[in-house]
Amino acid sequence: MHNKTIADLAKGLRSGEFSSLELTLAFINRIKQYSQLNCYITVTEELAVQAARAADDRLAAGNANLLTGIPIAQKDIFCTEGVKTSCGSRILDNFIAPYSATTVEKFTKSGAVMLGKLNMDEFAMGSSNETSYYGAVKNPWDMTAVPGGSSGGSAAAVAARLTAGATGTDTGGSIRQPAALCGVTGLKPTYGRVSRYGMIAYASSLDQGGPMARSAEDAAIMLQTMAGFDEKDSTSVDLPVPDYKQGLDNRIEGLKIGLPKEFFSEGLNSAVASTIETAVDEYRKLGAQITEISMPNLKLAIPAYYVIAPAECSANLSRFDGVRYGYRCQNPADLTDLYTRSRGEAFGREVKRRILIGTYALSAGYYDAYYIKAQKVRRLISEDFKNALTKVDVIMGPVTPTTAFGIGEKIGNPIEMYLSDFYTIAINLAGVPAMSIPAGFVNGKPVGLQIIGNYFAEDRLLNIAHQYQQVTDWHLQIPKGFE
Amino acid sequence: MNEQWETVIGLEIHTQLATKSKIFSGAATAYGAAPNTQACAVDLGLPGVLPVLNKEAVRMAVKFGMAIEAEIAPYSVFARKNYFYPDLPKGYQISQFELPIVGAGHLDIEIDGTSKRIGITRAHLEEDAGKSLHENFHGLTGIDLNRAGTPLLEIVSEPDMRSAKEAVAYMKKLHELVRYLGISDGNMQEGSFRCDANVSVRPKGQKQFGTRAEIKNINSFKFVEKAINYEIDRQIELIESGGKMIQETRLYDSVKDETRSMRSKEEANDYRYFPDPDLLPVVVNEEFKAQVKSTLPELPHARKQRFKQQYLLDEESAALLTSSRQLADYFEAVIKESGCEARLCANWVTGDLSAALNKAGLDIIDTPVSHERLAGLLVRIADNSISGKIAKQVFEEMWKNAATADEIIAAKGLRQISDTGAIETIIDKIIAENPDQVEQYRSGKDKVFGFFVGQVMKEMHGKANPGEVNKMLKAKLADSHLKTKG
C-alpha cells in the first residue's frame, strides 16, 4: 500500500482495504528500515499513531476529507508545536517549537497524519542537502548521489515511499530541483499563495512552501489544504482558492507552450536536453503548440538572487543569537563573546557565507550598488516573465542542467553549486508558480521537466502536469530496492 | 547666554502610541505587567513568526500628520534597522527609513508672547525594544520583552530652535498635542514621551551649522532644559579654548547635571536599513484620510481662539483651559450643564478646581468633582442661593464626598437668606446694640459700615444675601439718623 498515491490511499481508507493506523505503521516501519537514507531528522511515531487512530474514527464517522488518515511528513523548516524544529541547524538542535506553522495546522485540521520532520539543507541554504547539521540525505536512485536541496529529505522520502507526501519550501528551486533529481512531482506556488507563518525564514521575499508528492493529482490534493490567505502573514494573498482537483482532467489542446532559448544553451547536459525535448514532444502530441521565446534578462538571475537572498537572510538569522532559545556557547565571557561564539559554533559554513555576503551587500556605501541594483534586475526579470506569459500559456524547460551529482562532488565549490540553480532561481525572483514533474531518466537517474505558469495559475499547471501523467509513467517508477 | 554664539537645536521625540495592542502583534501594551507576560511569539522573535501591522497605529500617525498640517505619504515603507542587542529579539528593529508615513509639517510655539514656527521634518512609525534589567540577577542581565513591539511615533524636528527655552516650549507643545489627539498618554515617567536633542553652536551670523552632539533619551522637560544648557556651555567652552567638536552621542546624567560621551560617529552602528520583506507598503488613500480627518478634534490653538471669542475669556484663562483637551472638555461641559455665565465657570475651573487638583496631584480626568456636580454648585451661586464664600465651603465638602451641592447646602443649612424680614430683624438688633458705632457712622465715618455688615453676617452665620444686607443696612442707618434728628 505504500506505493499507492494519496488519491488511491484515500479510496483504500474508505473501502476498508486498510486503516490509517495500519498505513501509518507500515510507513513508520519503512522509515526505520531505510534509515540509511537519512531522510528524517525526527520521527514522531507516538503522535502519528495517535493521529492515525483519530483519523480512523473520523473516517468511520464519515466527516473525513481526502487527506484524513494519509501519512505525510513536514520539512523541518515548519514549526511543529511540541516537536523539535531544527531547520537542519545545530543552532536549533534543542529547539522545541511552542507553536505550529499555519501549514502544519492546516494539515492537522484536515486529519493528515504527520510521520515526522524531514532533513534539509541548513536553513534551506543549499542545493544538495549536504549543508544539513544532521548529515547528507542519499538519493534513493543512486545512494552515492545527492537528492538535491534544500528539500532533499522531502524528495528522497517521497521517492523511497517513506511517506505518501511531503511539504517543501522553495526559495531558489528548493522544491523543484530535489523533485527533479529524485523523480517526484513538486510544486512551488505563486509567492503569497501559501502562508509563510511558522515557516522559518531564509529569504522572506522569495520563500514559498509547496507540496511534494508522487503525482500531480496528489500535489493538487495537498495544495488544496495548504493554499489560502492567512491573516498572520501580510504577504499572503487574499484571493479565492480554486478547486485544484476539479480542473485536472481538462483537455489541453491548443495549449501554447513557450521554450526560452536561454534555457537550452551550452550549460545544459545534452542527454538531459533530449529528455526534455521528448517530453515537450509528448505535449505536442496532446495538441499543444510549441514556440521558441526569449527572456533576455534570465542570465542576470543568479547574481541578483545572490544579493537579495543573502541580504534578507543576514537579517532573518540575526534572531539566532543564543539569548532566548537555541544553541548557546559554554561560559560566555561577555555579550560579544556570547554572540560570536554561539553563532560561530552553531552555524555551518554555507549559512555563514550567505550571512557575510548579505551583510556586505547591505553595508553603507554598497547598498545602492548591490541591493538596489539587484532589485532593479529583479523587476526586469519579472517583466520578462509577464511579457512571455502574454504570448504563451506556460513556459517549459529543464529544472537542472544535469541529473543528480555525487555526494561531495560540488560542496567544495559554491559557485558551481550556485550556477546549477540557473533554471529555477528566476522563477522565485518573479514570484510565478512552477512545477517539476518526472520526465524520464538518464543513466538510471531521474530528469525533471519544469512547467512555469502565470501568477495564481496553479490549477492550470496541475492540469497540464496531470495530462502528461495520464500518457506517461515516469512518475510511477520506483527506485530499485524501495519497492 | 554668550553674545557671540548662536545655538541650534533639533529634537527627535519618541512618543508611545496609545494602541491597545502592539504594532506588529496582538499582545497587550499595558504598562507595569510582570516581566515577559505581555510578549507573544512575535514579540519574542521566535523562528518563523511574522509581523502584522496594527492599523490603529497607522490611524494615529495619520491623525498626528494632519494636526501638524504635514503631507501624509500615500505610500510608506517599513524597513529593518539591523543591530544586535539582547533586548532586541529579532536582531533588527522594524522602523521606517526612506519613506516615512508623515512628511514635512510644522508646529507654532509661543515664546515671550510672540509666536514662532518650528518645522517638523518627518514622523515615522516604529516598534520599541524590550528592557535589559541589571539588578537582582547576580552579575547577569535579565531581559523583559513586555515593551518590545510597543508602537512609537518618532517625530523629527528641523534644527529651528535657538535656545533650551524654545526646545522646551516645542516639546511641551508637542506633548500637549499628542494628548489632545488622544494618540498618546504622554506619560514621561513611564517613557511614553522621550526626547533626543541634537545640539550645536555656531558664531552668530554664520550660516553653516556647527558640529552637533546628540543627547539621548531625556525624559523630562526640566532635564531637557538642563541638558541642553549644559551642552551649550560645554561646546562654547570647548571651542573657545581651541578644541574641536566631534560628532558624537552623549548621555545626560541628571544627578551630576552633565552630559557624557557615549560613542563617537566612528563607533556608530551601520544599521544596514532595507525594506522589510515581511510587510507590505502602507497605502493611505483619500478615503482613509477622510475617515481620520472626521475624528480629528478641535486643536488647541483653534480652541483657545474660540474660547476667547465665544466666552469672552482673556488670553491667560483661555490658554490655561485649553492646555489639555480633557480640561477644555470639562470646562465646556460645566457651561452646558449649568447654563451659567462662562466667566463664572472659567473662574471655578481655573481657580478652586485646578488648585484642588494640583494640591492632590491629580489630573482633570481623575477629578473627584464631576462636571455635573460642579455645575450644580455654580447654579446655586448664580441664583443667589449661596454666596461665593459659602460656595467655597460647599466645594470643599464636594471634594471629600459624592454628595451634590444641593444635598450639602440642605444638610448643613447653608442656604442664603434673602428673606428681608429676617434680615431686617437682625439689622434692627445690631443697630440697637451698638449705639457708639451708629454715632460714628452718623458723624461721617463711612468705614464703620463694614463693621455693621460683619456683625449682621456673623449673626446670620454668613448665610445672608450680602447684596440685600448692604442695601437694607444703608437704608436703616440713614433712617435711624433721620429719626434722631427728627
TrEMBL record, chain A:
<protein>
    <recommendedName>
        <fullName>Glutamyl-tRNA(Gln) amidotransferase subunit A</fullName>
        <ecNumber>6.3.5.7</ecNumber>
    </recommendedName>
</protein>
<dbReference type="GO" id="GO:0006412">
    <property type="term" value="P:translation"/>
</dbReference>
<keyword id="KW-0436">Ligase</keyword>
<comment type="function">
    <text>Allows the formation of correctly charged Gln-tRNA(Gln) through the transamidation of misacylated Glu-tRNA(Gln) in organisms which lack glutaminyl-tRNA synthetase. The reaction takes place in the presence of glutamine and ATP through an activated gamma-phospho-Glu-tRNA(Gln).</text>
</comment>
<keyword id="KW-0648">Protein biosynthesis</keyword>
<dbReference type="InterPro" id="IPR020556">
    <property type="entry name" value="Amidase_CS"/>
</dbReference>
<keyword id="KW-0547">Nucleotide-binding</keyword>
<dbReference type="GO" id="GO:0005524">
    <property type="term" value="F:ATP binding"/>
</dbReference>
<feature type="active site" description="Acyl-ester intermediate">
    <location>
        <position position="174"/>
    </location>
</feature>
<dbReference type="GO" id="GO:0030956">
    <property type="term" value="C:glutamyl-tRNA(Gln) amidotransferase complex"/>
</dbReference>
<comment type="similarity">
    <text>Belongs to the amidase family. GatA subfamily.</text>
</comment>
<dbReference type="GO" id="GO:0050567">
    <property type="term" value="F:glutaminyl-tRNA synthase (glutamine-hydrolyzing) activity"/>
</dbReference>
<dbReference type="InterPro" id="IPR000120">
    <property type="entry name" value="Amidase"/>
</dbReference>
<dbReference type="InterPro" id="IPR004412">
    <property type="entry name" value="GatA"/>
</dbReference>
<feature type="active site" description="Charge relay system">
    <location>
        <position position="150"/>
    </location>
</feature>
<dbReference type="InterPro" id="IPR023631">
    <property type="entry name" value="Amidase_dom"/>
</dbReference>
<feature type="domain" description="Amidase">
    <location>
        <begin position="22"/>
        <end position="462"/>
    </location>
</feature>
<keyword id="KW-0067">ATP-binding</keyword>
<feature type="active site" description="Charge relay system">
    <location>
        <position position="75"/>
    </location>
</feature>
<dbReference type="Pfam" id="PF01425">
    <property type="entry name" value="Amidase"/>
</dbReference>
<comment type="subunit">
    <text>Heterotrimer of A, B and C subunits.</text>
</comment>
<dbReference type="InterPro" id="IPR036928">
    <property type="entry name" value="AS_sf"/>
</dbReference>
UniProtKB/TrEMBL annotation, chain B:
<dbReference type="InterPro" id="IPR004413">
    <property type="entry name" value="GatB"/>
</dbReference>
<dbReference type="InterPro" id="IPR006075">
    <property type="entry name" value="Asn/Gln-tRNA_Trfase_suB/E_cat"/>
</dbReference>
<dbReference type="Pfam" id="PF02637">
    <property type="entry name" value="GatB_Yqey"/>
</dbReference>
<dbReference type="GO" id="GO:0005524">
    <property type="term" value="F:ATP binding"/>
</dbReference>
<dbReference type="InterPro" id="IPR017959">
    <property type="entry name" value="Asn/Gln-tRNA_amidoTrfase_suB/E"/>
</dbReference>
<dbReference type="Pfam" id="PF02934">
    <property type="entry name" value="GatB_N"/>
</dbReference>
<keyword id="KW-0067">ATP-binding</keyword>
<dbReference type="GO" id="GO:0070681">
    <property type="term" value="P:glutaminyl-tRNAGln biosynthesis via transamidation"/>
</dbReference>
<dbReference type="GO" id="GO:0006412">
    <property type="term" value="P:translation"/>
</dbReference>
<dbReference type="InterPro" id="IPR042114">
    <property type="entry name" value="GatB_C_1"/>
</dbReference>
<comment type="function">
    <text>Allows the formation of correctly charged Asn-tRNA(Asn) or Gln-tRNA(Gln) through the transamidation of misacylated Asp-tRNA(Asn) or Glu-tRNA(Gln) in organisms which lack either or both of asparaginyl-tRNA or glutaminyl-tRNA synthetases. The reaction takes place in the presence of glutamine and ATP through an activated phospho-Asp-tRNA(Asn) or phospho-Glu-tRNA(Gln).</text>
</comment>
<dbReference type="InterPro" id="IPR003789">
    <property type="entry name" value="Asn/Gln_tRNA_amidoTrase-B-like"/>
</dbReference>
<comment type="similarity">
    <text>Belongs to the GatB/GatE family. GatB subfamily.</text>
</comment>
<dbReference type="GO" id="GO:0050567">
    <property type="term" value="F:glutaminyl-tRNA synthase (glutamine-hydrolyzing) activity"/>
</dbReference>
<dbReference type="InterPro" id="IPR014746">
    <property type="entry name" value="Gln_synth/guanido_kin_cat_dom"/>
</dbReference>
<keyword id="KW-0648">Protein biosynthesis</keyword>
<dbReference type="InterPro" id="IPR017958">
    <property type="entry name" value="Gln-tRNA_amidoTrfase_suB_CS"/>
</dbReference>
<protein>
    <recommendedName>
        <fullName>Aspartyl/glutamyl-tRNA(Asn/Gln) amidotransferase subunit B</fullName>
        <ecNumber>6.3.5.-</ecNumber>
    </recommendedName>
</protein>
<dbReference type="InterPro" id="IPR023168">
    <property type="entry name" value="GatB_Yqey_C_2"/>
</dbReference>
<feature type="domain" description="Asn/Gln amidotransferase">
    <location>
        <begin position="329"/>
        <end position="477"/>
    </location>
</feature>
<comment type="subunit">
    <text>Heterotrimer of A, B and C subunits.</text>
</comment>
<dbReference type="InterPro" id="IPR018027">
    <property type="entry name" value="Asn/Gln_amidotransferase"/>
</dbReference>
